[in-house]
Amino acid sequence: MLVFGLTGGLASGKSTVAARLRAQGVPVLDADQIAREVVAPGTPGLGAVVEAFGPGILLPDGSLDRPRLAELVFSDPDRRSRLNAILHPRIGAASAAGVAELAARGETLACYEAALLVENGLADAFRPLVVVAVPEGEQVARAMARDRATEEQVRARIAAQLPLATKVAAADHVIDNGGSRAETERRTDEVLAEIRKRISG
User: Fold this and answer.
1) Which residues, given as ranges, of the chain have pLDDT below 50?
2) Rounded distance, CA 129 to CA 114, Å?
3) Domain ranges of the chain
4) How far apart (Å, rounded) are the C-alpha atoms in residues 1 and 100?
5) What residues form DSSP beta bridges with 53?
6) Count of H helices and E strands in the chain?
7) What are phi and psi of 38, to 5 degrees?
């Protein structure tokens, strides 16, 4: 089974592309969703995060206060490293289990969607790598609207990721999401056709 990577910057439109891939019959493993599952209430992952950052990162219902945690770690590289050391092995193990499940089901093609594929040195493990790109001004505007965040908060989060241009340079395929949704979906279909060609012959 070929598992290709899908990445991009904050609010660049990865989920739009992933939704189109699913609509075209490609199973998508979403690293962000997996990251939520490994810190769900009652999991060892959540226990480890609370141990590292204190009970103040929990909501009254016992679930993780993700915005509060993000606030703590995005401006502090040491804290971010500590969080990544807790999350990444768990996300990796859950992702590998997801891939194995798809392979057992007889799938020949799947997509792994993750914001930090290039940062974490995993680009070559998920070739071909598809990068969704958008102008930074649009990234900021979309993230502010989506996350109800200030421009300063959004720019700090963008600065914590690799520049989008670096990800584009690592890509096998680039999907420009600066235009209409229809244009993005059309480009996604073109990229998918090229990837399917690779596995068919």
Assistant:
1) none
2) 11
3) 1-27+107-201, 31-106
4) 10
5) none
6) 9, 5
7) -75, -10
Asked if 192 and 26 touch (Cβ cutoff 8 Å), the reply is yes
Give me the amino acid identity at 87. L
The DSSP bridge partners found for residue 81 are none
Q: What are phi and psi of 75, to 5 degrees?
A: -95, 5
- Looking at residue 76, what is its pLDDT? 87
d(CA 103, CA 98): 9
For the domain 1-27+107-201, what is the CATH superfamily, name and number? P-loop containing nucleotide triphosphate hydrolases (3.40.50.300)
Asked if residue 46 lies in contact with residue 40, where contact means CB atoms within 8 angstroms, the answer is yes
pLDDT tens digit sequence for 69-85: 988 887 788 998 999 89
pLDDT of residue 65: 94
Residue 63 is which amino acid? S
Give the distance, in angstroms, between the CA of residue 138 and the centroid of all CA atoms in the same chain. Answer: 18
Structural Rg of the chain based on CA atoms? 17
Q: Where are the alpha helices (DSSP H) in 38-135?
A: 44-53, 66-74, 77-104
Residue 99: what residue type?
V
DSSP-derived 3-state class of residue 172:
coil
Edge-to-edge order in the sheet of strand 28-30? 28-30, 109-113, 2-8, 129-133, 173-176
Please state, in angstroms and as integers, the Cα–Cα distance from residue 169 to each residue in 10, 11, 76, 189, following that order: 17, 19, 27, 21
Q: Establish how many alpha carbons lie within 13 A of residue 175's alpha carbon, considering only the half-sphere containing its beta carbon.
A: 34
